[in-house]
Request: fold
Amino acid sequence: MPIRYLLILGAFLISMLMWIDRACIAAAEDNIAQDLNLTPTQMGWVMGAFSLGYALFQVPGGKLADRFGPRVVMSCVCLAWSVFTGLTGVVRQAALLVGVRFLFGVGEAGGYPTISRAIYSWLPIGERGITNSLIFSGGRLGAAVAMPGVVWLIAVTGGWQQAFYLLAGTGLVVAVFWYLLFRNMPEEHFAVGEDEVNFIKSHRASDAALSMKDDKTGIASLSQILSAPTMWMLMVQYVAHNFTFFFVASWFFKYMKTTFELTPAQTGWYAMMPLLCGVLGNWLAGAMVDTLYRKGHWNLSRRLPAVIGFILAAAGMALCINMDTPQTAVMAMCVAIFGSDMVLSPSWTTCLDVGGRNAGTVSGAMNMVGNLGAFFTAILFPILHGWAGSHEPFFYLAAGLNVVAIFLWFMIRPDRPLVDLETANG
Reply:
């Protein structure tokens, strides 16, 4: 088996753990709120604090991966988020909990940009779509497992704090294994044979072999990256994706439990279903991206799955407005998350396409602004409900953002570099 497939497996497992650690607070929300006497608005800030820290440190995380390589950076990222996962179970005041969750977001921020930088060096261009879809499906599977799994873990370990401690310990072990087994380039890996090295080198981006530290060819400044129109379109469409998806990772558990008067165990299984549909959406989009690319349709291979995904996401969020049973509510959310997760592979693959050696920074910039959508989801859902006495405004807003994203994808050109390499001297 090619060793690069083990990289994909390792990134899949890290993605899964990242989402278990960030989604577990939604499954434990009732326990935490009761234990610390927190209101829904306060819990909104607790969950939103993660998204804010996560968003603000995406670009620094990507820059570090571009500069020092994914081996050291991913190990440090995993160590950092695991420490703050454990500290979540230690603090006893609302303000401190908000601060810890913000720092937890800072710790996780470099995760996906660093993985993206590893893919750029290790994977042939024609394998990027399915690779991104598999890795992100690991995250969705992790979040799905977290919903019923954390409820069970709390019962088994005797409290929500113990569940967070156990997850923190798991992350520390993963960080050590990544550092021992991964190398920045396939040429440097002790287990990669000459045939695989030659295959990768002949099919990956032409500048992937350039030194991360010394050769500045193709390195763009942050101002050059952020001034590119394509960068802004990628960031705005990712806001729509995150505004939709983060609802499932933050408030959907609470929404289902209170709206339909379910037990925590029932709610966990219901909340799991849209996330599993997200896994399927990831796989479908990844297959579409690579299949269409190999047939010579570069732009269409990224654009078509993204457009289909946003259409389904808009329809699913709009359908949520009139669903009056838990079964129909979950079905509508399954449609929305299936579609929303179809956006992941084309979005991150396009970052690799247009970013070149700046792949980590470009991916981080998209994820930074995109996760402001997740922050506003966590904050606005309880606020809009308190203002309107209904969940309808939130679902209308989510559907509208997805419609805007559809039109943006008709203007995004994955086949054109974000920054002309001849002018990228910063």
The chain has one domain: 3-201+222-409. The mean pLDDT is 87. The longest helix spans residues 264-294. The domain at 3-201+222-409 is CATH 1.20.1250.20 (Growth Hormone; Chain: A;).
